[in-house]
Amino acid sequence: MRIAVVGTGYVGLVTGACLAARGHRVTCVDRKTEIVAAINQRQAPLYEPVLPGLLKEVVASGRLTATTSLREAVLGSDVSIAAVGTPLKQGKIDLTFIEETAAEIGAVLREKDGYHLVCIKSTVVPGTTDTLVKDTLKAASGKEPGEFGLAMNPEFLREGRAVEDFLHPDRIVIGADDDRSFARMRKVYAGLFDAPILRVNLRTAEMIKYATNALLATLISFSNEMASLCEAAGGIDALEVLEAVTRDKRFYPPEGREPVKPEITGYLQAGCGFGGSCFPKDVKALISFGREKGHLPRLLPSTLRVNREQPLRLLGRLERELGTLAGRKIAILGLTFKPGTDDVRESPGIAIIRQLLQKGARVCGVDPCGIKNMQKVIPEAGNVHYTRDPQLALEEADAAILVTAWPGFLEIPPEDYARAMRNPLVVDGRRVLDKESLEKAGCRYLGVGLA
Ligand code: UDX
Questions:
Q1: How do residues 92-111 score in pLDDT, each as one tens digit?
Q2: CA 4, 8, 10: angle at the middle one, nearest 5?
Q3: Residue 268 alpha carbon, nearest atom of ligand 1
Q4: Which residues are catalytic?
Q5: What is the whole-number distance in angstroms between the Cα of residue 106 and the centre of ligand 1?
Q6: How many angstroms separate the alpha carbon of residue 263 from the centre of ligand 1?
Q7: Residue 430: CB within 6 Å of ligand 1?
Q8: Ligand 1 midpoint to CA 213 (Å)
Q9: Domains of the chain
Q10: What is the pTM of this model?
Q11: What sign has the CA pseudo-torsion 417, 360, 448, 222?
């Protein structure tokens, strides 16, 4: 099929590249000429493993092109997929880009003959597609639903693994309120992806996306709440507790002789909190949505509160250990919100660095990919510096905090901490370091969920 994808962020561009790799003819649309030029020159304009190679292949084969002209892309396609941003504004979802995109597509449909399906892939609160999007399309096109199709197809892509997640989905959710829209959207995926296709109505599809992210975020905050209780009790390691909890056969496939550890257990690990462009934004948007609709969620605000406090709890323990943070040099291992990405949005590292600076500490942040983006949030200045070399950060440091579990940090020999640091105190914010080896090398170890 001929598909237009509007928006070339990691969702839009990964969607376009993967659909082209599966044989569709894709036109990616973006307002930014430099992004469009980069794509047409086979350069991925964002950091996402695997994407560069895939993009080169599909652009070279002519199956994917990019343009700034939404009109040209929509006129020449059967389906338009909107993957534009839906940021937060004063704590609630901002649908400006969605509305603008729907209006632009609608204006093209006014002059376009034949049936065209409009699909929303962006994360939008329930009831957006079947009201705001539908009404905007009707007004801009002068056509009724039925003359054009409307679908909602949420994505479940993880940054750093987005191509893998798109090409190997576990389920494909298609929201549609009529058969023809569903049939057209189904053709995008049918036979090309080995996953069940779940048909729901438009607003159910929107809710499935939020419920998925809210569950994952709440699992993390649950784990961190258990960790804080373990710390308060003393003599309990949250790592052991959560490991045993997830050995419950209801987590493991009963038929598995040698049970495979399900990936969901990766969200039941205590740490310094979740970040990223999705979990915080989506949970906040869902709370605002509930408040507007007359049901104020009780659990979700706690998910956010536990997450907000988690990095600060860790710093509180460090401050008690050092007596004061003023004047101390603290190495921060990890700036991105997770390994495998250059994205620092809502990273716990931001809250930790800001609090350390406020307490008068000197900070040296280390990250293999995130420095450029962190500079935009907390620019290098007198008391904060960044380096890609952990040894430089550890040099004469009074403590080191592991915030992001980059593989390179896990390979730092324990002796390096003891030799380089003025005070070899290692705070394991992701519980991925070897406590015994660090202590044997003469370090003091502090871990989330262990006191
Ligand atoms: C998430 C969802 O997984 C994805 O399905 C959705 O489409 C977009 O949002 P992403 O934000 O890329 O993807 O990150 P993910 O890999 O899910 O991790 C989110 C955060 O949770 C990271 O900050 C990570 O450090 C944190 N995390 C993860 C924990 O704090 N503890 C854990 O046990 C697991």
A1: 999 999 999 999 999 999 99
A2: 125
A3: 33
A4: 278
A5: 35
A6: 11
A7: no
A8: 8
A9: 2-200 (3.40.50.720), 216-447 (3.40.50.720)
A10: 0.95
A11: negative
